[in-house]
C-alpha cells in the first residue's frame, strides 16, 4: 500500500507516526517528572520548616 501523494509505503508512515507518538510521550514524561520533583522538594521544605517551628516552640 502506497500513499497517494508521494508514493511512501504505508508501513513507513505508520512507523513515522509511532515515532512521533513516542517523542510526544517522552516530552510529557520529562514535564511530569519535573512536576513530581518540584512537589517533593516543596514537601521536604515545608516539613523542615514545620519541624523547626515545633522544635523552637518546645524549647520555650
Could you walk me through the main structural features you see in this protein, from its secondary elements to its overall organization?
- The chain is an all-alpha fold and 60 residues long.
- The protein is built from 1 helix and no strands.
- The model has no long low-confidence stretch (mean pLDDT 86).
Short description:
The chain has 60 residues and is mainly alpha-helical. Helix content is 83%, strand content 0%.
Structural class: mainly alpha
Mean pLDDT: 86
> Helicity, in percent?
over 70%
Shape: rod-shaped
Query: Separation of termini?
Result: 81 Å
Provide a count of the helices.
1
Share of β-strand residues: under 5%
List keywords for this structure.
60 residues; mainly alpha; 1 helix
Write the layout of secondary structure elements.
Blueprint: H1 10-59
